[in-house]
Amino acid sequence: MTVTGIIYQFYNCTILMDHKFIREDLWVRDGVIENPRKLFFEEHRKADFKIDCHGCYIVPGFIDLQINGGFSVDFSSNKDVEKGLSKVAKGLLEHGVTSFCPTLVTSPPETYKRVLPKLRMRNGSKAGSGILGWHLEGPFISAKKKGAHDEQYILADFKGLKSMQDTFGCIENVKIITLAPEVPNVIEAIPELVNKGIVVSVGHTASHLLKAEEAVNKGASFITHLFNAMLPFHHRDPGVVGLLTSKKTARERKVYYGMITDGIHSHPAALRIAWRSNPKGIVLVTDAIAAMGLGPGVHPLGEQSVTITGFSAHLTGTDVLAGSVATMPHCIKHFHKASGCTKEEAIEAATLHPAQVLGIERTKGTLAYGSDADFVFMDDSFHILRTYIAGEMVFCSGEIPVK
Ligand code: ZN
């Protein structure tokens, strides 16, 4: 057997392994996390390079399944789509996000046809975070729970892949679609979407629990920003929120739920209720908009405009929340503080769980042996010190010496 590849040993660190922080070194070769015992005992190899981590934590790179833009780019309105995607991908590296699903809110058909084919799914690199595929939020949603979506483009009928092809043009790069189960024919169409490898998420819906459960039984496996843009919890009719405690369905499918844990979109008590009833299902999403990374003021959002004050973003002149301007480390930090979860649980909600939603947890969202060496150095308070993709340093804050 030819043994190739340079071996890197990251030492003086605490790593997240098997759901726990442990004081152990991290070994990387050819962009993959290695089992040191295999390297020593089977291959008789040792490290070619040793990297002192100065006591920091090493956790998997973050995965954001819902992000509409950032750094002044809005994916739906940016003129040069590829350039916009690259700019956001690059900007996310300093926030520890190593993969993401660019997200489009309900848009006119010409926008979909112009924008969707421009995405190239790719692994991350120095040039930017990895792009996993589109998350399309709408247009097959409920006008009653439209949130910041433009009502004139909402479509009230769905014919599965055919509707998607007609509306979107290109569906090859679609990974997640948010649908309202009460839109005619949505329930029936879910299996063919799932068979095509598309994650069906329930959201922007006035659906009652029964209908939402039907969607899950047909293969829906995610809830888009739980609590926001859905019926509020009622003890006799819990709505989509009731899915939190649903028993496993006939298909043994687990339901994950996205939460925008920016401290604005949900009260900490609501976050605790969700997390305590289903701790393994929570997925932190930023739902960030173009103004993420910019300052307070009025900024464009699709064909509308939003006003940013502090960490909140509203449609200009209204009190309608328009998405967040939070970064993933901010969301993790807030989730940890508000829920009382452990640091490990806070990190897994932004790494392992989103990877599980997409079925990529064997390679992403984990530091398990054999997975991609996408990881983050952080301090005790979730502050990002460095980001690595495929074992290569792609961001460095300069706060710990590079040696
Ligand atoms: Zn939304």
Structure, described:
Helix 5 (186-195) runs parallel beside helix 6. This protein has 2 domains: 7-59 and 366-396, Urease, subunit C, domain 1; 61-358, Alpha-Beta Barrel (TIM Barrel), CATH 3.20.20. It starts with 6 loop residues before the first strand and ends in a 7-residue tail after the last strand. With 403 residues, the chain is of the alpha/beta class. Strand 2 (14-17) and strand 3 form a beta hairpin. Helix content is 22%, strand content 26%. It has 10 helices and 24 strands. The strands form 5 sheets. Strands 8, 11, 12, 13, 14, 15, 16, 17 and 18 form a 9-stranded parallel β-sheet that branches. It binds zinc ion. Zinc ion is lined by residues 137, 147, 204, 224-225, 229.
Keyphrases for this structure?
403 residues, Urease, subunit C, domain 1, TIM Barrel, nine-stranded parallel sheet, six-stranded mixed sheet, globular, binds zinc ion
**Roughly what percent helix?**
10-25%
Give the class from helix and strand content and strand pairing.
alpha/beta
Oligomeric state of the chains in view: single chain
Roughly how many Å is the radius of gyration? 21 Å
Q: How many β-strand stretches?
A: 24
Could you say what the CATH topology of the largest domain is called?
TIM Barrel
**Into which percentage range does the β-strand content fall?**
25-35%
What is the number of helical segments per DSSP (H or I, 4+ residues)? 10
- Main sheet overview: 9 strands, parallel
Which shape, going by the Cα principal axes?
A: globular
Number of domains: 2
Mean pLDDT across every amino acid position? 93
The CATH superfamily title of the largest domain: Metal-dependent hydrolases
- What distance lies between the first and last C-alpha atoms, to the nearest angstrom? 32 Å
User: Which CATH C-level class of the largest domain is it?
Assistant: Alpha Beta
Bound molecules: zinc ion
Low-confidence segments, ≥5 residues, pLDDT <50?
A: none
